Amino acid sequence: MQRNSTTEKARGPRGGAGPLEERVIISLNHVNLSYPDQVALKDITLKVANGEFLCLTGPSGAGKSSILRLISMDAFPTRGQVRVRGMLSSTMNRKRIALLRREIGFVFQDFRLLEDRSIYDNVAFAQLVIGVPGRQIAENVTRVLNQVGLWDKRHRYPRQISGGEQQRVAIARAMVNSPKILLADEPTGNLDPVTAQEIIDLLFKFNDAGTCVIFSTHDHAIVKTFGRRVVVLEGGAIVSDRTREDQVDRSARLEDRMYRAEPERGIHRTTEEFSHA
Ligand SMILES: Nc1ncnc2c1ncn2[C@@H]1O[C@H](COP(=O)(O)OP(=O)(O)O)[C@@H](O)[C@H]1O
Ligand SMILES: [Mg+2]
To answer: Any alpha helices (H) in the chain, and if so which ranges?
Structure first.
């Protein structure tokens, strides 16, 4: 009996709660955020599914950073509830916040690297602070620096690499603990358009590997070409939340990729190349 009902549930939607509901990793439920002299967010309701890639946009002061701070529980709602990976904003204490932060990588507009440490040590630092054993640190830092294409420059210091490269280091540092969620607050704000696109592409790569990515930008050029979900904020409220119609379902894409011999090259193949194959 028990086994039967579990199978039923796994097969698909019944009643209200469907598979999407079960995949929600972040939810903001009628959230307000007020500062003493300022209402930053008004009645925000937002659900983000596991593995989703979402762009938060809107003019300066619209509340983009505030939403990201609520998700990382750097800020707490003055009304409403934030839930991240099952943790409720109203029940958090220092210990639980520390646990939550291990599941979240954060990237900032101004990189925030440690100037007196090498690229390698900047990334390793994120592992040291959570007490990962030495050999495992070497393994993880090597992996992630290769993923962002900076293994060859690992001995350099932040001032010896470009802005785009510094942001790659920041992303490596955010990803080295294998977080489930990557939050990037205007990660392209200090970069030229070409480098900015490279950073977005790198975020896509981590999203392809299963990380839920939320980034903010006020740059229309990036939003225009972003083929995923875009949430638009204005004056602390959500004024639009749209997913591009050409978006392919994440789980379907991931499943598809599992059966490809060369997943990395496969992504970049055009329809034409496939028809010639
Ligand atoms: N620490 C703070 N104290 C007071 N007001 C703040 C603080 N942080 C942000 N705000 C205000 O909240 C609003 C939203 O800010 P923010 O989330 O930083 O917007 P965005 O990231 O879209 O530029 C703005 O009006 C801003 O001035
Ligand atoms: Mg901001």
So the answer is: 2-11, 19-22, 64-71, 94-101, 119-128, 134-147, 163-175, 193-208, 220-225, 250-258, 263-268, 271-276
